[in-house]
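Quick entry, no commentary yet.
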Amino acid sequence: MLLASASPRRRELLAQLGCTFDVASPDVDESVLPGESPVTYVDRLAVAKSRAVAAPDDTLVIAADTTVDLGGDIMAKPVDAADAASMLRRLSGRTHRVHTGVAVRRGDRVLHEVVTSLVTFVPLTAADIEWYVATGEPLDKAGGYAVQGAGGVFVQRVRGSVSNVVGLPLHTVVRLAADLGVRLHGTAG
């Protein structure tokens, strides 16, 4: 099995299933195409990442891409601290969508799906945002926060898959892998 992702969060989530796997970092242009919706964006990138890594035909390749969607705007990883603070101000007291595109490939066959969760933030003060940005945590996270980290203090409610918000909806990965003939949970390989 091969995880086509450099994300430590995805590695941690997949490891929770008890699987052993190798990791490869796919080289894919993550630029948003003109007029591309957040759902189409993550689906396209997940499929591209699954195809961007070399693997033997019998190897299961798992790839994903996650973004935060606020009113149709794609909120990817912030470029710097000011961008992270801006994202957090926009998310404050509002509900947004987290989309993760998942692609599972075995040989030439690729199954893919987008999972969406709704996340509601508490209202944030300027001091909240300043504190959180100073932790450095938001800088490599879509939308500028980590629900599984210190940023979880801002999350009032999650409707849908929590593992999706972290970056890999495990229920979907397991189902898609099974559709390709690979059982993930409870396996050692």
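second:
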Amino acid sequence: MEPEFRPSPLALTVLSLLHAAPLHPYAMQRLIKQWGKDSVINVGQRANLYKTIKRLNQAGLIAVRHTERDQLYPERTVYELTGAGRKAAHEWLTNMLALPRNEFPQFPAALSFVMMLPPHEVIAVLGQRAEALRQHLAEIDADLASYSKVLPRVVLMDDEYQLAMTRAELSWIDGVLDDLRAGNWTWSYEEFADLASTLHPDDDSIFSRPD
């Protein structure tokens, strides 16, 4: 096994799919989308899937089983899980479930610099996000209601998690918007310019007003 191989959600997905049966890459991508797992696994770019498969193969975690040749389809390489891959899949899965990890999503990063926008603009953009979250919440809720009629709960845990996290985020944003609209808190360029000069009294360039 390649010592520098870094686990990823997509790599874990490939190993997990091959845990059930040998598959070619197109079948993997199709299953991910059919099962609705593309909402938590990024397979938008097929090149990323093929790159991950190549690295897993080079690391000895998967192996080529055979190549399918059919006049109706391009040549397809079928992969299978190796013993090392089976062990890695178990290790990655348990670690990802047990250990919280800072995954650096975009929204908290943007929030860390939200003071660059005036309060009225923050109200507008967070209002847009809240509306998008409400729509997403309704979609997840509908999917769960439909899937839970035919599928066991254990295969819907990712949907349950998304539902809970989306509800929590929407509740928090609604609270922030209520405070901003009520005028309970605000900020200004001058406020942060003064703060910057206090923290860095010798550097006049920090928070300098743009021309």
